[in-house]
Amino acid sequence: MPNGLWLILFMVLVGAVIGGFTNFIAIRMLFRPYKTFYIGKWQLPFTPGLIPKRQNELAAQIGKLVVGHLVTPESIQKKLSEDKFKHDMETWFSGKIRSFLEKGMTLEQLLEQIHIENPSGKINDYIDKKLENKYTEMKGEIWRKTIQDILPNDLKENIHSKIPDAADRILQKTIEYFSSSEGKDKVRTMIEDFFKDRGRLWNMIQMFIGNDSLAEKAQPEIIKFLNNPGTKSMLVNVIESEWNKIQNNPLGEMLNKLEDEEMLIYIKRFVKNTVQLEKFFKNDISEILSPLKDKLEEKFVPRILESAGIYIAQRSGEIIERFQVEAIIREQIESFSLPRLEELVISIAKKELVMITYLGALLGGAIGLIQGIIVLLTS
User: Fold this and answer.
1) Measured between alpha carbons, how far is 315 from 124 in angstroms, rounded to an integer?
2) DSSP string, 275-290
């Protein structure tokens, strides 16, 4: 082989090695060395490497890049409005709800997981205190009022209209009673009680009429009196008169013998037996929500996700600002160790960095080829 060709090949090889090695060193110098080196007080140039030296600035610029151009309110709104994203989120959320309900967890266990111990007892105590306060408050207000003040006008008119019917029922029941054998015995007893202290008069009546005959004569008269329209009218007037008196009496006077403590015990027991909080909190959440299970998946999940999406889309800028995304990214990058940061960048751009090294070797080889040709031409 001619010497000229060997010279060209040698210069191409040397150029390629120099070009490739130079690019390899340049890439490494982006990260290495990790710290500054000194000879005496004199700082060696290119120490530390570019990225270690500019890590804080790099972190700040990446934070601005992400917030300003990548994770922006517009990009978030666009993502939230995608039909596929909505469908995927609904599927995921529905699956989470089903998985949660299948655990068989009770409402009490759920509350205990968020550090709310004995929820039924606490709610019962709260209800008891509210009932005591409300009872005291209502007693102070209502005890001074009359029934007429409390009852609605429609109800008072309705009660008043029922008085004739009530009087009629009372008379009918009374007639039925006095028409029975028990009623007859009662009449006989009443007659005996009336005349027993009158001595001779009672003996004379028994002599002429007899005890049973007197009762038999009095019973039809009593029934006749009860059937008389005037009796019903009189009873209606009596009931109306008493009802008017009751309406105008303060409740405090009517219920003055009522013990507050006994009344509160009764009210609390009634509310507790009605609500049954202990039993409610022992139920499985799936059992509590079973009537709403279909609605949860068909309506609740889409609506809550839609509402959440609208809320996030409208306030995405504020959310990014409040979460200080830029500061978080900057702090995270600043906290990276330099070997980890180097590994991260190289793992992302490994192929490109290798190609840059090969490109340096290719350019160096081309320069060596040109130099060899020039040397041959000029020698």
Assistant:
1) 40
2) H-HHHHHHSBHHHHHG
